[in-house]
Amino acid sequence: MFITGDDPVKGNLVASFNRPGGNLTGVTVFATAAMWSKRLELLRDLVPRAVSVAILINPQDPAGPDTADMTAAARALGMQLSFLTATTDAEIEAAFAVAVERRIEALLVSDRPFFTVRHKQIAAVEARYALPVVHGWREHVAAGGLMSYGSSLTDAWHQVGLYAGRILRGDKPADLPVVQPTRFDLVINLKTAKTLGLEVPPTLLARADEVIE
Q1: How far apart are CA 196 and CA 137, in angstroms?
Q2: With a threshold of 0.70, does the pTM exceed it?
Q3: Nearest in space to 129 (alpha carbons), one of 150, 148, 104, 147
Q4: Backbone phi, psi, residue 32, to 5°
Q5: Burial label, 202 (beta-carbon count in 10 A; 0-12, 13-18, 19+)
Q6: Are residues 58 and 143 in the same domain?
């Protein structure tokens, strides 16, 4: 059993999503280029004045987001996109400092594991630098981040448990399709928005799956 943020086919974990083959199956929360495009659209809706934006990535992650696709998506929305990097805790803080120095108006943070496990630290840093930030996971917003759009990690782990039970009862992993996310939640932290001086448009609030106040 696995849960992965990578493409399990390209990573040679399984032969295909529908017919894994072998002795592995599981759940993927892989973020496609379309997901990043959607996050950029939501950022534009929340901070329409933001033209200079950046994405924080880990350059040591071989399965990180496709920077060319993301640059093209930003350009289509009239945004100028740059990339900031971090591979350590200290570099996360430094990246935010660079963003402010370069007058970056909003930031997106990669949803890769390096950043996911540091959601509390990142929320604290973005509060100190008073920078609008969009995340991939609800956990960041619950910790004080501004907004997230993505699938549910809680649901993913629940599905892992369901599959584990089926395998223990005799089902073969090769016959269990890899589960891909079908629901994507928009979560907004209104308290953080007010602290940043942002007025969340009613149309965006109406689309939110969860509003944290």
Answers
A1: 20
A2: yes
A3: 104
A4: -85, 170
A5: exposed
A6: yes
Distance, in Å, from the CA atom of 83 to the CA atom of 100, rounded to the nearest integer, reads 13
CATH of the domain at 110: 3.40.50.2300
> Residue 185 pairs with which residues in a beta bridge?
150
Beta bridge partners of 212: 189
Both tokens assigned to 121: 């630290």
| The token pair that represents 182 in the structure block | 């079908």
Paired tokens of 90: 């200290």
Give the range of the structural domain holding residue 85, as residue numbers without chain letter.
33-150+184-212
Cα 33 to Cα 9, 24, 69, 72: the distances in Å are 17, 26, 6, 10
Burial class (CB in 10 A: 0-12, 13-18, 19+), 39: buried
| Nearest Cα to Cα of residue 162 among 150, 152, 174, 171 | 171
Q: How far apart are the first and last CA of the chain?
A: 37
Please state the φ and ψ torsions of residue 204, each to the nearest 5 degrees.
-75, -40
- The structural domain count of the chain equals 2
For residue 85, give the 3-state DSSP assignment.
strand
Q: For residues 93 and 138, state if they share a domain.
A: yes
User: What is the Cα–Cα distance from 209 to 149, expressed in whole angstroms?
Assistant: 10
pLDDT one-digit tens code per residue, 138-188: 999 999 999 999 988 888 888 889 988 999 999 999 999 998 887 889 999
